[in-house]
Amino acid sequence: MNDEILLELHDKVALIRLNRPQVLNALNDALMDQLGAALDKIEADETIGCVVITGSEKAFAAGADISAMATYSYMDAYKGDFITRNWERLKTFRKPVIAAVSGVALGGGCELAMMCDIVFAADNARFGQPEVKLGTIPGAGGTQRLPRAVGKTKAMDLCLTGRLMSADEAERAGLVARIYPADQLLDEAMAAARQVASYSLPVLMMLKESVNRAFEGPLNEGLLFERRTLHASFALADQKEGMAAFVEKRKPNFTNR
Ligand code: DAK
To answer: Whose CA is nearest to atom 3 of ligand 1?
Structure first.
């Protein structure tokens, strides 16, 4: 089997590189299977606190592999649970994930970036949902996550025209958290991931779960979930340690308990 992704462990940070450069990291079943397997491994590894997913300088991912799906029938896609079964793994992954996007993030590539928790972009990055040009629609969350990220009118503009959006526009619209020169992007994403991973892992997981509630339910339910999760955090040894360290003017030593 080819290495459709490359997994590197750097202390508390896992770096996943999408690795199909000959097709601009177009996403096929094998790549998504390997991504899911890597996420399983990282989830089970207590020492890892944050993940960075990146592509090449030219492409984060140019979308689902068009040649692989071009001749699919409805039944092939439906019965095979096309892409869905292996894409869902990222959605259920509980540790923080940073997408470091350089070059194109189109179609499924943009959808993959949006499934991550934070998106950093290189100044050469371009985002889009050009499926309309292929006679189909975004199918891995694009019609749902893009409006939540950039608002309805810009999401409609991007999906209905298939045009691409620059890193600057994506940052202004709220899809991208930070922009860096392309040659600094990965270093900056790894530095942010190291910072995140230095905190208590159960707190990071609680935080991620709570922020995600903002996208998945009504405000009152989200606020209640947040409040109860805050209360639960007071059961953690890491909460005692974090607050004691502040009072004693020293660095906290979190134990993920
Ligand atoms: N699939 C397969 N191959 C691709 C590809 C893709 N998405 N994108 C690029 N490639 C290949 C090209 O065919 C070319 O291969 P060779 O000709 O060298 O063999 C190689 O990568 C380099 O591409 P170009 O020569 O085109 O490079 P350029 O710099 O000229 O252009 C480009 C870069 C990104 C503008 C262009 O390649 C492009 O427009 N690519 C297609 C972008 C696109 O339409 N993406 C959306 C794909 S549809 C689902 C979930 C998700 C999806 C579907 C279903 N379910 C849950 C059911 C997602 C759908 C999509 O993403």
So the answer is: 23
> What is the tens place of the pLDDT at every residue in 114-147?
999 999 999 999 999 999 999 999 999 999 999 9
Q: Give the residue whose CA is nearest to atom 39 of ligand 1.
A: 62
Reported as type and span, the H/E element at residue 95 is none
Q: What is the pLDDT of residues 183-206, one digit of tens each?
A: 999 999 999 999 999 999 999 999
Q: Counting Cβ atoms within 10 Å, is residue 30 exposed (0-12), middle (13-18) or buried (19+)?
A: middle
Is 131 considered catalytic here?
yes
Candidates 67, 60, 31; CA nearest to 164 is: 60
64, 125, 155, 189: the active-site residue: 64
- Choosing from 19, 22, 23, 29 the residue with most ligand 1 atoms within 8 A of its CB, the one to mutate for a pocket test is 23
Give distance in angstroms: CA of 133 to centre of ligand 1.
12
Distance of alpha carbon 199 from the chain centroid: 19
Rounded Cα distance, 5 and 113, in Å: 15
